[in-house]
Design brief:
Elements lengths: L7 E4 L3 H13 L5 E6 L4 H17 L4 E6 H5 L1 H5 L6 E2 L8 H5 L21 E3 L4 E4 L1 E2 L10 H5 L3 E2 L2 H13 L4 E5 L16 H11 L4 E4 L9 H9 L6 E7 L3 H7 L5 H14 L4 E8 L6 H13 L2 E8 L16 H25 L4 E7 L4 E4 L4 E3 L9 E5 L10
Helix pairs in contact: 7-8, 8-9, 12-13
Length: 407
């Protein structure tokens, strides 16, 4: 069979999609099919999904083309109307074998079923690390976010099943696991006894020999004392925390319906840094949220320094249909883009200074393809002097030449 007839899964968006795409791939067998696992976090992400569909059809004109993921979940009819698309499969069904075994030309099942499906414990293993889904969905309703429409309410995977999945990837030779979810710190609220993310992490560390555990994006207000102690005191938990902050102005945070204030975010980072100085902070920030004026934008700009953000994910606000923020007074698109660019410039300067500060330190780097680079425990991107086996962890005394990839 030629390579053009092999199944292909194109994953857009979050780490959870990456994990789920790997499970989808395992369900496709050797059929001539292309799956677009879509994202709906912004209008740009939806446009990228549509562009990926058109590109895939040009490159694979004879393949069955299926669309799944959050964009398909939210707007199944819109994607079904695209002439390039053969099938639309919702998030509730995309990890079920029957959805891919069916010969139906088009599948749009009851989209409400997404709220009834427990996490499938999707596991994606690239050449160096594994992503393990432990939670899905979100019970919060931030005014800008359409993801609850695509993922449904928060659901958690039982700790025993998570541990078994991690044991399998460790046995397969993986040295790092990333726990993923839509609202990771809400883990366990729906399970018997209401275990927390901290208790899950404790059990993983106690029951496995996993060398490195990393958390994907988490919500600052839900970091309780137990999780805080693990983030700052356990060396197997990586000193890298990505916070869903979104803004640095209290009025904007209130209008976003976030559950923290600016002072809460700054205080949390100060406590983390005091307890574990090497911890690296990442954050999501939205530029140009409705009603944002220059003073409010300046508060978000200053948050990069105030929270020592070195891994920033910055994007201009995107009005999503059906969300309260889309009905608020909008900031002009060009101003949103300008403010996002200013935030990115500030974040780049902060990261460059942080990377320079690593010179002379010893960093333990997980080797990634093609073998001459990788990420340190603090997620600094490090160039290696020579190739190493992919997936190994190597100690590197950082010199300026090691930092060229990440500055």
């Amino acid at each position: 069979m030629s390579s053009l007839s092999q199944p292909e899964v194109i994953s857009l968006g979050c780490r959870l999609n990456i994990a789920e795409s790997e499970t989808i791939r395992s369900l496709l067998g050797d059929r001539d099919v292309v799956v677009i696992n879509s994202c709906a976090v912004t209008n740009t992400a939806v446009k990228q999904t549509r562009a990926a569909i058109r590109r895939a059809r040009r490159l694979r004109p004879g393949a069955m083309l299926a669309v799944t993921g959050c964009a398909a979940q939210i707007d199944p009819a819109g994607f079904a109307a695209m002439p390039e698309v053969d099938r639309v499969i919702g998030n509730s069904d995309k990890l079920l074998p029957d959805a891919w075994a069916s010969a139906e030309p088009l599948v749009i099942r009851d989209m409400a079923r997404v709220t009834e499906i427990a996490p499938h414990l999707a596991v994606a293993a690239d050449q160096s690390r594994a992503f393990v889904e432990v939670q899905n969905g979100c019970d919060h309703r931030c005014t800008f976010c359409a993801i609850p429409f695509g993922r449904g309410r928060s659901r958690s995977a039982p700790a025993g099943a998570v541990i078994e999945a991690i044991e399998r990837v460790v046995a397969a030779g993986k040295n790092e696991v990333v726990l993923t979810g839509v609202d990771l710190t809400s883990y366990g609220a729906d399970l018997p006894g209401q275990p927390t993310l901290g208790s899950l992490v404790e059990r993983i560390l106690a029951r496995t020999i996993l060398p490195r555990l990393r958390l994907s994006s988490i919500d600052a207000p839900e970091i309780d004392d137990r999780l805080f102690a693990l983030l700052t005191g356990e060396t197997r938990v990586m000193p890298h925390l990505h916070l869903s902050l979104q803004a640095g102005d209290d009025m904007i945070l209130k209008r976003m319906k976030r559950r923290h204030t600016r002072a809460d975010a700054v205080r949390l980072v100060e406590r983390l840094k005091a307890a574990r100085p090497e911890i690296a902070i990442g954050a999501d920030l939205i530029a140009g949220f409705p009603t944002e004026d220059e003073a409010m934008a300046a508060n978000s700009h200053a948050l990069i320094e105030d929270c020592a953000i070195v891994h920033a994910h910055i994007f201009p606000y995107s009005p999503r249909a059906g969300t309260p923020a889309a009905r608020m007074p909008q900031v002009a698109p060009e101003l949103r883009r300008e403010r996002a660019a200013r935030l990115r410039e500030a974040a780049a300067r902060r990261k460059a200074a942080w990377m320079a500060s690593l010179a002379g330190t010893t960093q333990h780097v997980l080797v990634e393809a093609p073998g001459n680079r990788g990420h340190a425990a603090n997620f600094a991107d490090i160039r290696l002097d020579r190739p190493h086996p992919i997936g190994d962890i190597v100690a590197v005394t950082v010199a300026p030449e090691h930092l060229s990839l990440a500055a």
